[in-house]
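In this supplementary section we document a worked example of the pipeline. Step one takes a protein sequence of length 1889 as its only input; no multiple sequence alignment statistics are reported here. Step two produces a three-dimensional model, which step three serialises into structure tokens for compact storage. The input and output of this example are shown verbatim.
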Amino acid sequence: MAAAAAAAVGGPQSSQPEVPAQGLALDKAATAAHLKAALSRPDNRAGAEELQALLERVLSAERPLAAAADGEEAAAASGGGGPGAAEEEALEWCKCLLAGGGGYDEFCAAVRAYDPAALCGLVWTANFVAYRCRTCGISPCMSLCAECFHQGDHTGHDFNMFRSQAGGACDCGDSNVMRESGFCKRHQIKSSSNVPCVPKDLLMMSEFVLPRFIFCLIQYLREGYNEPAADVPSEKDLNKVLQLLEPQISFLEDLTKMGGAMRSVLTQVLTNQQNYKDLTSGLGENACAKKSHEKYLIALKSSGLTYPEDKLVYGIQEPSAGTSTLAGQGFAGATGTLGQLDSSDEEDQDGSQGLGKRKRVKLSSNTKDQSIMDVLKHKSFLEELLFWTIKYEFPQKMVTFLLNMLPDQEYKVAFTKTFVQHYAFIMKTLKKSHESDTMSNRIVHISVQLFSNEELARQVTEECQLLDIMVTVLLYMMESCLIKSELQDEENSLHVVVNCGEALLKNNTYWPLVSDFINILSHQSVAKRFLEDHGLLVTWMNFVSFFQGMNLNKRELNEHVEFESQTYYAAFAAELEACAQPMWGLLSHCKVRETQEYTRNVVRYCLEALQDWFDAINFVDEPAPNQVTFHLPLHRYYAMFLSKAVKCQELDLDSVLPDQEMLMKLMIHPLQIQASLAEIHSNMWVRNGLQIKGQAMTYVQSHFCNSMIDPDIYLLQVCASRLDPDYFISSVFERFKVVDLLTMASQHQNTVLDAEHERSMLEGALTFLVILLSLRLHLGMSDDEILRAEMVAQLCMNDRTHSSLLDLIPENPNPKSGIIPGSYSFESVLSAVADFKAPVFEPGGSMQQGMYTPKAEVWDHEFDPVMVILRTVYRRDVQSAMDRYTAFLKQTGKFPGNPWPPYKKRTALHPSYKGLMRLLHCKTLHIVLFTLLYKILMDHQNLSEHVLCMVLYLIELGLENSAEEESDEEASVCGPERCHDSWFPGSNLVSNMRHFINYVRVRVPETAPEVKRDSPASTSSDSLGSLQNSGTAQVFSLVAERRKKFQEIINRNNNEANQVVRPKTSSKWSAPGSGPQLTTAILEIKESILSLLIKLHHKLSGKQNSYYPPWLDDIEVLIQPEIPKYSHGDGITAVERILLKAALQSRMNKRIIEEICRKVTPPVPPKKITAAEKKTLDKEERRQKARERQQKLLAEFASRQKSFMETAMDVDSPENDIPMEIATAEPQVSEAVYDCVICGQSGPSSEDRPTGLVVLLQASSVLGQCRDNVEPKKLPITEEEQIYPWDTCAAVHDVRLSLLQRYFKDSSCLLAVSIGWEGGVYVQTCGHTLHIDCHKSYMESLRNDQVLQGFSVDKGEFTCPLCRQFANSVLPCYPGSNVENHLWQRPSNKSVQDLIKEVEELQGRPGAFPSETNLSKEMESVMKDIKNTTQKKYRDYSKTPGSPDNDFLFMYSVARTNLELELIHRGGNLCSGGASTAGKRSCLNQLFHVLALHMRLYSIDSEYNPWRKLTQLVEEMNSQLGNEEQQAEVPILYHDVTSLLLIQILMMPQPLRRDHFTCIVKVLFTLLYTQGLVALSVKCSEEDRSAWKHTGALKKNICDAEKSHEVLLSFVISELSKGKLYHEEGTQECTMVSPIAWSPESMEKYLQDFCLPFLRITSLLQHHLFGEDLPSCQEEEEFSVLSSCLGLLPTFYQTEHPFISASCLDWPVPAFDIISQWCFEINSFTERHAEQGKALLIQESKWKLPHLLQLPENYNTIFQYYHRKTCSVCTKVPKDPAVCLVCGTFVCLKGLCCKQQSYCECVLHSQNCGAGTGIFLLINASVIIIIRGHRFCLWGSVYLDAHGEEDRDLRRGKPLYICKERYKVLEQQWISHTFDHINKRWGPHYNGL
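The serialised model returned by step three reads:
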């Protein structure tokens, strides 16, 4: 043994002959066993050396990978073989050595037994289906594999299934991430105590072998890596290396799967620093090791990383490294390695962007960063492995291996530290990567496993500076794409922002790092460290300021912008992900009082950063015009922390607010955004393209609003509550550019705004003020109230599905914040405010989803237009909400007219924000309100109802929030100080409302009407007083002083400022010399706000003196102010409500209102009607008349339409239709008249100009799907359940035909059965007719139509020109009169015998095809269409292809198919009676003509005509038996009677006479009845037979023996007993015998059931041929009713006795003779083939209706079974699996693997299973797809979640349940063949499904 080992180790020197492979294996095992023994000794040095030498040789990395073939040692070592052989050999050695001589598999099993792991830790890659349970999760990232999920108990939990995007790992068993209650059975209790200790020798070899193995792997990685050349990315080379290493990495991965014992060995190996040092230092003799070490150093260097030699102390660099904060040009000035590295990747990015010149870069100034960024020292295998993993851009295999190790706790910590150490390097590699998406996913796959664990994150934060590293890395990452900001001061701005056009932002490359950052901030302990560390906060604010003001928009004033940049997506995503989400993460930890300090820190550094920003952009007091940026993250940080401080931490707001000047600056930019929103909606930015609208919409969109518009408005509210209200209000109107509009004059000039935009900008300004003053989101509402308000706003706009509601309600973006979508509060609020509307199903209607709609009381009390306006992305949603509100009021009778938005009471303000209400009580606002009311009253231009609405809203807000000190004022009001001010005496709205203003001086253009008037003589002193102070500028000049420096404004004294009025002097605003000169005019006003309101009431109501103070009649009004009558209504109601509130607030107002009402207001002076107005009046009148005309026309049209609808079809419901005959059936009309829907003419169908019915021909296999058992088949959901098709109708008929063809003459067989059970042609029509020549020209026009249609005109498809139903052919109507129909129907008194002869003669006449007329051509072409509708295999059943018998069989089978399908549409029986359900839509009559015409071309040879056999006795019975060679004809008892019926009738000349029809039916009934008796005799037992034979024989001589079933049965039995039919029963018989004893009743029932299908089809046929209605009846009497309807029952038949089916028999020849003749044929056949003879006699007549497969209740059962199932054809798991709902076949959708002759599998299956119609359930999408011929459509889903919604593509992953109604609708459409009519969205599939 030892010798062998020595030889093996000795290697090349001892030139041994090569051992054959078998020997080698033994040799390996032996060597391994020997070494294991050697190592087990106490002194194992020798063994160890021996092993090392062996490994050195086996695992040598001497050869470069690619050239493995040319190394001779390699060849020797591997025993020859190609390049891969050496590696395989090495692996074999390793496996042997690990197992220590035993078998490797046994070794694996042994190790697994010692697995103590209580964690699942299963690692998966992208697209894996996993679960997340929010109820059990502690971390939001928690996920479970399907197995653990299903084995745990999650009933009633909030869970969902999801497709992993980046990959992940199962957390089952990890109590840091999830609650233990959610663990599955396997991982609940597995503590280390009950796992035995690992025996030392089991893993001893592993400890020796694995270090070498891993080192070898690292050497390969070093060898294989070549620094990519500058121009060519070397991904191909890297992939090649990785492919070669695949087996090695897989081997490691398998080791990790052996469980905890092996993992801990691996951990030891990977983290042991000594091993690493010994093997990799490259200091040994080994040249190869040296070379590999050099490559490693080169790789480090090229990555811009230094390898610190030990003498250089960690982190102390030359001081110059980071000191230059702003390097001059690009990176030239930057020292430190970063400079060189980044400049290299700078070039490739800039070449394309052309921004090189504008690049600016800022390097952080502390040296710590440099070391974070540039120094890497590897001390263990794990560290270097990770390094190479990153270098090779995270190959999936490596990632999986590294993650598989995570259940080992020691490894987890080591690996996390290593990961953090390489963080900067990861960022650099990511930035350079070409596949950054894949790489991002792999990074997150790893990091989410590490950082979701709070304990681990805390440890790494403390020990490895995790936060410092992350923030620094993020900062560095963004620094590579900064440009100079152009906001405000383009030239001198020092601010830099990120460039949103860079790939880094455009492709979201930063998200892995940001997502890690958000993840660790969700842990409280980590977030606290962050909030306490001032240095970090400063750096972070620095980072956030890079985004402040990015993506600046400049308004285009002249040309339309050429290129619309789409960078705004990147900008919004960056602010949300990189700024807002970390902010929400931090906020979630500032919830309690103890955290005040954190808030103070953030606010402090935030303000500092803002101050720096204002300085950097040189901001003084005016924002630059025509610029807007939507990105102000610093403002938003500040706002949100303020809000939190007041709401949760009880901080005093003033203690965290800056001085007034800073507040003024802070409000400018958010206000600018609000004004810009109004400008954008007013189309002032239209030249900037659509993208600017996109930005305005994104800013308020549900995912962004609470990180953008909400903080902005809150910040403005804070500023407004602390700044001077007059200043604030005037700033608002100035920002919105409507100052000039606010003048009393009727004309004005606006220097900054076009007239067409004035109105919408004014509406914008007022709406903004209303929102600002009434929104309470951050000013005192609780979280639940906010949620409720948001939900009500969304529901008021539209009914919503549950999922869209979840999506629309802005949740706190940080998932840990506690407001989780779907959390309990969401559901409880939803049920409080909304009602669930379950989906309704009208057949053919659109598939609705379950919707939530607001409850009535919500409309009544909670509808809040302000919230709706704030939250609407599209303006039309506001209108939609108002329309719904109006409808509600009309419906409940609360208000009939057009209501105004209701005024809603607000939540109380938080005390800190009380100052906000001062805005409502400042003179500036009152002047504006007064002016606007006056202007509206005087009908000035550009004012709308919306303006009035907002003005009244503001007045009402003011009254609701008035100060309480009113009463003291009352006394002093009359004092002289009243006039001290130009406008209003005080600032309280309540008292200002009653203040009369007499004269106002205005500046107007000279052309204005005011100038012409004489100015009034100064009458009274107070009016003069007003004149003096009214200022020379506009109304608004009160605060035109804003141009003064800020300090002045802050320190000013109100009075002074009000007196000193200076006109504006800013050059920007005036347009000198433009327009007419302004002059001053004085207007006499003499109104107060109250009087204006009362006049407004008169104006709105259109009546004089319409306002009467309600309290004069009912004093109660003043006591209970909340009167429901005022809560809903229009402007009149609003005015009344305001006057009432004003009167309530002060007695004085009440008195004045009464006074004003007493002075009967003089009528508003009648205006002279100007020409322009006259024009508008005429216009009105003309409009009125036009409207009336239109009404009349519409009414006429509606009645026409109604009559059309009555005659036309109703696609949607195949049931209950109004019966309409095609032709009018009055006897005096001689011919059927048809309307052509194209040319509109009506007339008969003639030979030369035939009319046709619009029809759709389609092949159908629905009939073939009937089964004989009642239980519908279930969809298989386990391997055991399978569906076999042999009990389907189609299969049974197929077997029967092939059996007949085996023994009988082919031509005869083809007359004995029908085909078309599969692939039969079904013809349906919409009932509209057209001339065939019109149709041809219509098709021509469709062909030339370039519009993309959903159908293919070349295949003859079109839509009916009238009802647009899909069609593909035209069925000619046979010309013929109606009257002859009636003549034919008169019963003649001929005897049966005569009729039989006539029938035979008529059949014998060959039918010559009529001469070449247009009609006959059309008949031929439609026959061709019918044939081409189905595939050849469904037409050709003959043994001789193309024989005429085939066509014959096909033609009568088409008739059979259509009759059978109609029967199925009627529910399988004719009990309901009535006309054909299709009514007008039946085309069977026309179809029969076409078929008969063609069938008469084939004459059946008269001796073969079955009619003979039915009606005549053949003399020489034995003649047939003589010629054995020639195949016999099919015995008449084996014929299918229904097929015979159709053959007989279609062979007759058309139109058919009624008595001939009845004759044929009678004759065939005798045959049918006999068949029933024969089948009965075969079914029963020997004893039964002999008993019956006996009883029947006794009765044979009674008078109507031929009509007694007992007699006939006994005769049949005795006849058949002559043959061998009843013999040889023996064993088989047991199966046939039915255990029941046959009573006469059960026999009768059996016979009736046997005959019924024939009677039904015959009755339907009679109904179509002769147009008689079908009688309705009970099910039990169906037989008797149908037989009397068909004339089988003699009329004198008494109904007293119980009904006997035999009484319908009417034998054409003596019964016993003909029966014995028929039985003789059977006997002669059964002589030779008794078994088959018997099988053919028993026909299954009772087919149940066809059904689709039954689906399980819960979708998950389908999904779990099928989504991993392998395809039986290609044995792969399909990417898009689908399953056929008709037969349960599993197919690959779009799979190229299963493609046959360019047809993909689904299309192929639809042809084989449904003759072109396929219904498939797509497993991964839960949707059903319909294939019809060459088109397909998405039908929708039959699985809905608990809220009645589909979940297409399983995006939400909530449990889905079958919706039985939907499935019923689907089945109904399948059976009634209406897919084409009901589903509208069809597209071609090009055989690619």
